[in-house]
Amino acid sequence: MLALNWFLKTRIGLSIRATGDSMEMVRASSIDPSFMIVVGLCCSNALTGLAGSLFASYNKSADINLGTGMVTIALAALIIGETLFGKRRMPVRIVGVVIGSCLYRFMISIALRLNAPTEAFKLVSALIVAIAIAAPEAQRALALHRRKKAAMRRRRERRQGMLRVSNLKKTFNEGTVNEKVALNDLSLTLPDGDFAAIVGSNGAGKSTFFNAIAGSFYVDDGEIFFWTIWISPLCRSTSGAASSGVCFRIPLLGTAPHMTIEENLTIAYLRASGHTSAFSRSAAKDRIFFREQLSELHMGLEDRMEQPVGLLSGGQRQALTLLMATVVTPKLLLLDEHTAALDPKTAEKVLDLTAKIVRERRISCLMVTHNMHQALELGKRTLMMDGGRIVFDVSGETRAAMTVQDLLDRFKQGAGSELDNDRILLSE
Description:
This protein is α/β, with parallel strands linked by helices. It contains 18 helices and ten strands. Helix 5 crosses helix 6 (90-113). It starts with a helix and ends with a helix.
């Protein structure tokens, strides 16, 4: 174990580990990943051969079938060790694998003492592996259930805001060289009918914040309430997730290009309108409704409902994406830089359409933008993010009297450094 730990910390050992972790980084470091894979396989086969020879010497016999099932045992040992010790430093990981192997053999010996038939050993091995794989997820689900109960209790005690986010934390690739703190104790309350514009540099955590609200992944800590519904990846299909509309920054992501305009609208309509049957279809009155909604865009799309969406321009597709998100009025609309890929004229048209829809339907809305003027002019509230937290929150008369320079100054006060994103600064 000491020799293996020493080897994995050498230049070639680190290169092998990096190849498994990020092949793109290895290529960027002028290391041949194919060579590293071959070296890794050679080392693993050499260790396998050494283990086999030691085992044969100990038993004073050898059998070609001795290696049957070794991959399953190795996988089980690895999973059991990682479940017990987690992803820690390399010496602990190596010890974890050894202990996992011992525990696996211990469980097999228990099966032997219980006189389990030989034919059932594969089933026992499969059950051990399945339990080892399921254990971390079961622990996470149990902890999530406890957090949910505690959060629901606190929510009943303090009813406030349509959307309430408390002490949200999320770190990607924790414990690795690629560790990134995306959300850092972020809290926000959004009243019903509020429209907030969010601005911040790349990596500030804006999109991660939206994905957390949408329930796209588990957060490390904190809670998100949509009215009385506790948001998590386990409830993405509940009424909470269905009541929010999302508009993407890239038009291609919000639509299915090879399906017609009508089919795209039908998918959005059936998903959000309460149709629970998997065999629900749009009716003739729904098509009339789609045509009326498309005519309000003033882009002539109502006469092109049978055409594939891929034939539309970027602005038309983004307008269609916005319409899909609001075809059934959502309680919360998330707009993630939905005009970023558009030319200025088209972007202005989509923004006017956005303001009109949000205003007329009284939709609560969070909009991410890199344009400082938009952050001050659209909606009722401006939020500035940096390092995964909200550093400035302004609304009302104070916001109405602010200029872009005032906003930059307040960002510097809250973040402790100047905003250095060229895209944002050039939008002035």
